[in-house]
Amino acid sequence: MTGPSDDPVLRALGPWLGRSDRGVLLAVSGGPDSSALMHAAAALGASVQVATVDHGLRPDSGPEAEGVGRAARALGLPHAVLTWTGPKPGTGLQDAARAARYRLLAAHAAAIGAGLVLTGHTRDDQAETVLMRLAAGSGPAGLAGMRTERPLAPGLTLGRPFLALPKATLVAWCAARGIPHVRDPANADSRFARGRLRATWATLEREGLSPARLARLAERAARDDDALRAAAEQALAAALLPAKNTDAAALHLDGAALAALPEALALRCLDTALTRAGAGPRRLERLESLVLDALLPALRRREPIRRTLAGILVAADAAGTLTLTLAPPRRFKAAD
User: Fold this and answer.
1) Fewest C-beta atoms under 10 Å: which of 44, 124, 150, 336?
2) Domain identity same for 245 and 212
3) For residue 52, what are the CA distances in angstroms to 98, 157, 298?
């Protein structure tokens, strides 16, 4: 009989189930990966709860969520359906659905007192994520792909216990145990970038660009990104100047210290400072344009500069002091 020590699925999941003393919530869509997650947790005797997000994007999504509920209850696991309500965007639908999914899961975890949410993401999902970000021109943070764990909300962690396992392992695990699962047709829908990329796998693998190699790239990029983040935190701490009484909410930095940093470190340092100052989402290209093309050259020449990015006014004076503060509201000219 196969036990946890020689079962790759049970071995991958086991260490996660005792990590939170506040309870564990499993995100289960009904596909093979998350179905394996749910059945493996039950096989390990874990006390967990299950949630299925119904995005309402397909006629079958409701019945599929109900089917997961029946399977969960048959295993003795509490189950809830979380419904994404309201209007759906005409563009960026998958990104909006992903954001809604995590928002609903975080809210339900808080409601039941869970401290850990687990998903069934696999090495194949990681490879697709890296490939999509490579196509988008991402830097090291993007090429690091999905992290094995990350904060989802205050006091709540998102974990991916199967991120190192091939999807085929989970499909075979379900098949060997007669565990039924659904297939989401959106996974092969050519309207979405992920579906189009999936159709290219055979060609990419013939050239050596396999899911395993892309996942390995993510691991390497994650190591570099972690080191760069830590170095940027130290550089920012060293560059911070005392707050002034007149603008305590602003960040004041030693521009000369920033200008002396390697460009990659200065870029990450300013990105971290923008986040602390309350900046909104920003594209890497816009950040590079601000820091590499405008700000660092101005700091090195001791020239004043004022730029706005992601809701933050970035200004340097002739003395080399850099200040980050919330940008004033834009003024719109009244129509004639």
Assistant:
1) 336
2) no
3) 13, 18, 52
